[in-house]
Write a structure and sequence with these properties.
10 helices; Endonuclease I-creI
Length: about 250
């Protein structure tokens, strides 16, 4: 199976970097992708089709009760070998995962953007905060979650540097960086990349075009109403979006 990098394969790489696990030893060959149960629509209506169309295989999504996640397992050895040839390790990858060299060296903005889409949809986040009540902001900004923040967080230092470089190549300018050193000795250092404000948030969503409706609904609600409450479920956000459309 070819490992030439296409936008579709780049997105799959981002998905795997975020929520994937690769096994290729003995009789157990698996590519395991799963996430929050709330993201069922994302798996059923986007990821399933993405993997099927790219690899020419059948994908069956399901609930995994022992870990309370939703996703799928692929046991096609050619698919697994393809992912491994791209640089993804077998076994625990959390601290050593990185963006495949073929993505980094593609010199193709669509390839880079699609990798970010896959990573964001599975392991990134967008949230909104209020403005400080001590500053001279409007009452709306003090009481509504209006200020957008996009974050990528990882325990892999190399992935952190790779994603920062991709954001630079795509013209995002200055990116917020933060290193969290845990107090417990058995926990890994966490590296955080942040895009602040409406301009960069809109630029990111226009470039990557995220497909995870759980995260996309937050952005769309903010874009329509100027704020997105922090305590809403996905279903509640979708209902608010429908109500807004019916006005």
């Amino acid at each position: 199976m070819t490992t030439d990098i296409s936008p579709e394969l780049a997105e799959v790489c981002g998905v795997h970097a975020g929520d994937g696990y690769l096994r290729g030893e003995g009789q157990r060959w698996e590519l395991d992708i799963s996430g929050n149960v709330e993201e069922k629509d994302y798996y059923d209506h986007h990821l399933k089709l993405l993997f099927e169309n790219l690899f020419g295989i059948e994908v069956n999504c399901r609930f995994f009760p022992h870990r309370s996640t939703y996703g799928f397992v692929i046991r096609n050895r050619e698919v697994i070998k393809t992912m491994h040839e791209l640089g993804f390790p077998y076994g625990n990858k959390s601290t050593i995962i990185k963006v495949p060299k073929k993505v980094m060296k593609s010199n193709n903005n669509e390839v880079l953007s699609r990798f970010l889409r896959g990573l964001f949809d599975t392991d990134g986040c967008v949230h909104f905060r209020t403005s400080s009540k001590k500053q001279k902001y409007t009452e709306f900004k003090k009481t509504h979650h209006h200020y957008p923040i996009i974050q990528f967080s990882t325990v892999s230092k190399e992935l952190y540097h790779n994603v920062k470089e991709i954001l630079g190549m795509l013209g995002f300018g200055k990116v917020g960086v933060y290193t969290y050193v845990p107090k417990k000795p058995n926990e890994n250092v966490r590296y955080v990349l942040t895009l602040y404000g409406s301009e960069k948030t809109k630029k990111f969503f226009n470039a990557a075009c995220p497909k995870n409706p759980v995260k996309l609904s937050r952005y769309l609600l903010w874009k329509k109403n100027g704020h997105c409450p922090s305590n809403l479920t996905y279903d509640q956000r979708m209902q608010m979006l429908k109500n807004t459309e019916n006005l």
